[in-house]
Amino acid sequence: MIPLVRYLCTVLLLSQRYLAPVLLFLGLVAVLTSGDTGPLTATYAPVAGVMLLSSVWLTMALVALEDRPHRAIVIASAGGDLRVLVATVAAAGVWCLLLAVVGVALPLAFGAHSPGPADLTLGLAAQLTCAAMGVGIGLVCSRLVFRRQGYALAVALILLLAVLLSRGVSPVNLMLTRLQNTSDATAALIPTAALFGTAMGCLAAAVALTQVISRRRA
Known about the structure:
mainly alpha
């Protein structure tokens, strides 16, 4: 599995299709956190929101790297389409983790903050929660599910709005609302960890759905 994840990460790197979502992430984080002097809990809320958008784009780009014949070769070499799908999720997770580390550091460079361990942990956890939801959305809106890119983009936009605006339902909405309304990072850690678990459950459901649909289309 590790060589397969390494292969997918390398292919994405060489294709340069990571540039648009990565530059979007860096640019928006810089704009949203420049000169900020408020509590880091509120600062990391928009950073996590940007991670949601970037992770969707990154995942869709990763899935679209290979055409059907090439993907068939990779599946045959890997020993099954499920292994390739799980490796795709893992590769997207690696890229999102790297972005999350940058997303934790940039607000400290652009703003005036005195961070503690709880603040940094919360910032990382918030971004990974959004990344899990974003990767899941990226999968169900990828070429594995939708043949036409226009439909995929429309569904991705609808799902993004749903997870951002669904009050009391979406783990992303619950987490971002809590971060914006509290200044105590320590108190927010446990609820954020619980929402991260919920987001991982949604990601698992997205993997299962994508696997079922992609097999029927094969």
